[in-house]
Design brief:
Uridine Diphospho-n-acetylenolpyruvylglucosamine Reductase, domain 3; Uridine Diphospho-n-acetylenolpyruvylglucosamine Reductase, domain 2; single chain; five-stranded antiparallel beta sheet; 25% helix; 27% strand; 337 residues; alpha+beta; Uridine Diphospho-n-acetylenolpyruvylglucosamine Reductase, domain 1; four-stranded mixed beta sheet
Length: 337
Amino acid sequence: MVPVFNASLHQYNTFGLHAKAKVFVEARSVKDLIEILEAKEWKSLPRFILGGGSNVLLTGDISALVIHNRIDGIVETAADEEHVRLHVGAGEMWHDFVMYCVSKEYAGVENLSLIPGTVGAAPMQNIGAYGMEVKNVIETVEAIEMETGDLRIFSNQECQFGYRESIFKKELKGKYIITGVNFVLNKIPQYHIEYGDISKTLEEHGVKELSLRAVSNAVISIRRSKLPDPAQIGNAGSFFKNPEISLGDYERIKSKYPEIPGYPTDLGVKVPAGWLIEKSGWKGYREGQVGVHTRQALVLVNYGGGTGDQIRMLSQKIQDSVESKFEIRLTPEVNLV
């Protein structure tokens, strides 16, 4: 819990940006966290919580107390013949948690393999992939109110989960620090392999009998083929949300672009943002040390030496371009700071 002043955040964000924190401190337990929040020498500073740094764009230095959440641990709190309950520290790496569940044959998160970031970020973003969203396996979320240091337990309903949304990104943004998440997983798996290329990949892998490990391996294989490794090229995965538009707007666009993909929802049609960006001519575009990935137009990249502000400006150009062409304004999935 030793503070570092004017600390580099280069290794704490997957874009690999060279932003700095006025004060940087790690919290490895709830006790650490409360002591940090109560410390008089930092009371005047705003607080900024940093987990895995996989869904954040640092557009400049952070003139704040940056708290790096390292609260880890996985504890099985209850079980019966069909379900198991797990308490997981917010600083635990998400993929490590998924691998734990797969190894124990606890079902419900296998389709979310290889998503970067921490367990604490999972409910904040309501992460999802290949037909699964984390809201479906979360029972409660434990968080500390930064102003008072009080612990509050949020029920699934109180989290107000939506598409890549939660109460922690809306009215409670910046007010709470998630310390732990309580999950309910299944001992009897229900496989979801109808999304994306999972079935095709399972066939390519020669899988004859389904298992959580086989599904997880298929998802990992697909993600590695489509998304760049942040260790090789700085990125935060999908930069924009897939927009949901009305059926009327979808039909309007489809009359001009018959090949546009769309997925029906309760409110209309969800359109892949990557398709819109690619059709607007941005795939593979490069501007100095930043650009749009050559294989996946949804991913903005830092080739090395780029700045967060350059990526922000590029993202705005893409938003303007897509809106001009399709009358759809893309919304960032990544948090701009």
